[in-house]
Each structure stands twice: as structure tokens, then as C-alpha cells.
């Protein structure tokens, strides 16, 4: 039986309330690096494959485990965080600064809406989560650890648990409620 462990990245600068420049390059805090080290030391046997999001915070978290198991294959898959706000607009902002934009995005409940250049729609995001599940199912490795982000992990769990028949505004609202609850 295949075992897949989904692990969220360690504490990032954004999680700690700091302003960030680029969504994809948000670094871990010192606490986040310590969390990554502790995760790496928690394995009681090596996985067959280590997978990471291309985003810096998840990749840095994964590298701590890769350092413990240097002989294990390491792959980068498109399991990065959901970038639903236009990245250029978010440059130099904090989570608190973006709160109003976030609330407006989710209130719209339009799965096809794209906020601007570099942003993705909810449909795109869910398609990435579905592709991830398909790739996991097809991969020959039987023990996979994937370092990703909270929204991706919640999307995968939501797809498995809720099995939505379609991705419409109602499904988007349901996912958001699921994400907040988890």
C-alpha cells in the first residue's frame, strides 16, 4: 500500500507577520528552519522519494530531510501555494495588509476569476491539486514525502474527502470553509 505524507513548510517570514517581496521566495524564519530540522529527524525510516514545492519556504523545509537522506531521490513538483492575488500588488505587504483583498477575492466566489498577471484562478489551483493526486497514484515509489503549503494540503484533503462533482462557486465556498476549519 502506498504511503504519502504531506508536510507543510516551517514557519515563514509571512507567517511571522513580516512584509514580503515575492510570494515564491518567502524565506523560513529561524524557527522555521528549526521546525524543518525536527521534521527531518522525526523519520524512523527513509522515504523512497522526497518531493517539494518550488517555493523557497517549502524547498528549504524539504532540504533538511534531503540532508538526512542524501541518497533518496528529490523532485520538485508544481505543488506551490495558491497564488490567487496578483503578486505585483502584494509586493512589500504583510498578511494584515492583504486581508481586505483576500476577503474580497473569496466573497466573489468566482472559480474562473484571475486577479491579475501571475495569479491563478481557483479552477487552475484545483486542477493542480488533482494533477498532484494523479501523479502520486501513477508514481512507482511506495513511500513518498511531499513538502508543500497549507492550501495545497487542504485542497488535496478536500478533493479526497468531499469528492466534488464540479468546481463552481458553491464548491469554492465549501473549500474555503474547509480550509478555514482545518
Concise structural overview:
It is built from 7 helices and 4 strands. It has helices at 30-41, 56-68, 87-90, 95-108, 122-138, 150-162, 169-181, and strands spanning 3-8, 49-52, 74-76, 143-148.
Structure description:
The protein has about 180 residues and is α/β, with parallel strands linked by helices. It is about 45% helix and about 10% strand. Helix 1 runs parallel beside helix 2 and helix 5 packs across helix 6. The longest helix is centred in the last third of the chain and has 17 residues. The mean pLDDT is about 95.
Q: Look at the structure and give the mean pLDDT.
A: 96
Radius of gyration: 17 Å
Number of helices: 7
How does the major sheet shape up?
4 strands, parallel
- By secondary-structure content and strand pairing, the structural class works out as alpha/beta
What distance separates the N and C termini?
26 Å
Order of the strands making up the biggest sheet: 1-4-2-3
- Fraction of residues in H or I helices: 40-55%
Q: What fraction strand?
A: 5-15%
Number of strands: 4
SSE series? EHEHEHHHEHH
Shape: globular
| Low-confidence runs of at least 5 consecutive residues | none
Amino acid at each position: 500500500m502506498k504511503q504519502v505524507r504531506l508536510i507543510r513548510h516551517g514557519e515563514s517570514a509571512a507567517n511571522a507577520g513580516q512584509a514580503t517581496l515575492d510570494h515564491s521566495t518567502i524565506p523560513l524564519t529561524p524557527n522555521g528552519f528549526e521546525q524543518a530540522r525536527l521534521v527531518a529527524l522525526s523519520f524512523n525510516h527513509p522515504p523512497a522519494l522526497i518531493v517539494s514545492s518550488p517555493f523557497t519556504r517549502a524547498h528549504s523545509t524539504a532540504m533538511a530531510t534531503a540532508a538526512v537522506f542524501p541518497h533518496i531521490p528529490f523532485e520538485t513538483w508544481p505543488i506551490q501555494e495558491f497564488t490567487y492575488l496578483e503578486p505585483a500588488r502584494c509586493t512589500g505587504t504583510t498578511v494584515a495588509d492583504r486581508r481586505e483583498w483576500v476577503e474580497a477575492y473569496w466573497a466573489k466566489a468566482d472559480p474562473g476569476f484571475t486577479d491579475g498577471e501571475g495569479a491563478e484562478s481557483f479552477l487552475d489551483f484545483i486542477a493542480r491539486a488533482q494533477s498532484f493526486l494523479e501523479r502520486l497514484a501513477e508514481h512507482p515509489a511506495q513511500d513518498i514525502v511531499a513538502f508543500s503549503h497549507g492550501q495545497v494540503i487542504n485542497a488535496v484533503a478536500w478533493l479526497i474527502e468531499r469528492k466534488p462533482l464540479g468546481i463552481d462557486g458553491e464548491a469554492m465556498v465549501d473549500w474555503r470553509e474547509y480550509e478555514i476549519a482545518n
